[in-house]
Amino acid sequence: ATIFPQSLSMGATFNRELTEKVAMAIGDETLSANTKQAWSPVLDVAQDPRWGRCEETYGEDPVLVSQIGGAWIKGYQSKGLWTTPKHFGGHGAPLGGRDSHDIGLNEREMREVHLVPFRHVMRNYHPESLMMAYSDYMGVPIAKSTELLQQVLRQEWGFDGFVVSDWGGSNDHALGVKNGSHLEMPGT
């Protein structure tokens, strides 16, 4: 497969057309591998350089992440493929660089920064699936968050695709399914 620059470098170009072409090329290679779906793009808004996944993001600005992430989705979906934007939501705001605990965000910061790219792509590109984050929001694991997975994602934004956990991201499968998770990774 072709090795393209990391997402952070793609974001630094501020070039939607180039990002769309990169995603189209990745889509061609995906089709040649007889695959249908990507666990991409990462729509996290990076806020802490200590976090080990900053290079997977398009940057620290929610509008830039929205635009470049949307271009990636547009290019990849143009090949008839499925995208899985991730990590919904607030994954790019880890406390002390650690992303698997309560992130400590209030509703305003969550909605005005971290949910902006997800809202943008849901409304404009209609991805088929979505991957949720490991973290907790307001003391509730996102995998079990009725507020995020039901009220925001499904009711407010009208998302009708399927939701997958991040790798081992849900420790209570039944409650995850009840609140909107469809696929636990890994699993049988």
Write up this protein.
The protein is mostly helical. It is 39% helix and 7% strand. It has helices spanning 7-13, 16-32, 62-77, 107-114, 116-124, 146-156, 173-178, and strands at 86-88, 129-132, 136-137, 140-141, 162-164. The strands form two sheets. The protein has a three-stranded parallel sheet with strand order 1-2-5, with no helix packed on it. Strands 3-4 form a two-stranded antiparallel ribbon.
Which short descriptors sum up this protein?
188 residues; mainly alpha; three-stranded parallel sheet; two-stranded antiparallel ribbon; 7 helices
What topology does this entry show?
Blueprint: H1 7-13, H2 16-32, H3 62-77, E1 86-88, H4 107-114, H5 116-124, E2 129-132, E3 136-137, E4 140-141, H6 146-156, E5 162-164, H7 173-178
Helix pairs in contact: 2-3, 3-5
Concise description?
The protein is mainly α and 188 residues long. The protein is built from 7 helices and 5 strands, in the order H-H-H-E-H-H-E-E-E-H-E-H.
Q: Measured on Cα atoms, how large is the radius of gyration? A: 15 Å
- For the report, how would you describe the main beta sheet? 3 strands, parallel
Series of H and E elements? HHHEHHEEEHEH
Number of strands: 5
Low-confidence stretches: none
Based on helices, strands and strand pairing, what is the structural class?
mainly alpha
- Average the pLDDT over all residues and give the rounded result: 88
Strand content: 5-15%
Shape: globular
Helix-residue proportion = 25-40%
Through-space gap between termini: 28 Å
Number of helices: 7
